[in-house]
Design a protein that fits this description.
about 55% helix; alpha/beta; five-stranded mixed β-sheet; globular; about 325 residues; single chain; binds zinc ion
């Protein structure tokens, strides 16, 4: 907390007074609760003006609500979000930097452009992406493709379910993402596990992220198709959360648990298939099974048929 005394600033000259006027006098700290009583502690830096702090709190509430919509409650009993101003704002990017810290409690740090409008923050994918990472009790290292794929898939679902984008835009964004993954050809022929392990030093981010997003789209679609819409990825992840939210699991342990808890033979097999895949797998069959047509890179959605019904349920969520 920092307090600025305007009287004192006047004594020291106009420059300091103006510097003082650019800041608020204290940080904004508040708690939010979901319907199950899970607590989110929000900290907004004293370096924002009061009006900016209020806007940022509204934004945090919005994205945190979109996270709770996935399986009806937040993934953690207690967690934190902190927001600070980005020092080197990239033009046009309202959230230049963000990071999840899997500590006790788990914390998500956002650095936002001080001038970012509430609307621009709400439309930025980064907020949804970072929070989606919390949907699994991942230990934070190993099989990065799985964690980044989960976040890349759900960031789009959460935006659609929150009403920020339409269902058509959601599928277009997923399509464009898979195309970026396919276009990232530098490591074609190298198994995903290897590209993923070396991503930080060698690159191949799009290959890794969108191979991972393919995994979750494939798993979600198979669950829905095989059960006639009774099962889905949201519910499968809810089962995992119920059992293991306070654990810190490797990805092989997560996929074993997902199969066991949901009584399916899916997640582990798909994992074994994907870690040896030598490029982003084809997604045309999945799109076709969901009533999605693509003509000249433009996604169009069929309105009739079982695929269309299952597809629209992905964009709508569980309505929890
Ligand atoms: Zn991420």
């Amino acid at each position: 907390m920092r307090r600025i005394n305007p009287g004192g600033a006047l004594l020291l000259g106009l420059g300091l007074l103006l510097a003082g006027a650019a800041h608020t006098d204290e940080a904004l700290d508040t708690n939010l609760y979901d319907r199950d009583g899970c607590r989110l502690a929000v900290h907004v830096s004293a370096d924002f003006q009061p009006a900016e702090q209020a806007d940022l709190l509204t934004w945090v509430e919005f994205i945190a609500t979109s996270l709770a919509q996935v399986y009806g409650h937040w993934p953690l009993q207690q967690w934190q979000i902190s927001v600070a101003p980005a020092t080197s704002a990239t033009a046009g990017d309202p959230i230049p930097w963000a990071q999840v810290y899997r500590e006790h409690p788990t914390r998500v740090e956002f650095f936002t452009a001080p001038s970012a409008s509430p609307d621009a923050l709400q439309r930025a994918w980064t907020g949804y992406h970072e929070l989606a990472h919390l949907l699994i009790p991942y230990r934070g290292w190993g099989d990065a493709w799985f964690s980044e794929g989960l976040a890349s898939y759900y960031q789009n679902l959460m935006q659609a379910r929150a009403g920020v984008i339409t269902e058509q835009q959601m599928w277009q964004k997923l399509y464009d993402g898979f195309q970026r993954g396919l276009a990232d050809t530098a490591f074609d022929g190298v198994p995903l596990a290897e590209v993923s392990d070396n991503m930080r030093q060698d690159g191949g981010f799009m290959r890794v992220y969108w191979s991972g997003a393919w995994y979750f789209l494939a798993a979600d679609t198979r669950l829905r198709l095989q059960s006639g819409g009774q099962r889905n990825l949201d519910l499968a992840l809810a089962e995992l959360n119920r059992c293991c939210r306070d654990q810190s699991l490797s990805v092989p342990a997560i996929v074993r648990q997902l199969d066991r808890l949901n009584r399916v033979v899916l997640f582990e097999i798909l994992y074994d298939e994907l870690v040896v895949a030598e490029q982003v797998p084809a997604f045309g069959d999945i799109f076709a099974s969901l009533g999605i047509d693509v003509v000249d890179g433009e996604v169009t959605l069929q309105t009739e048929g079982p695929g269309a019904r299952l597809r629209s349920q992905i964009a709508r969520g569980n309505g929890l």
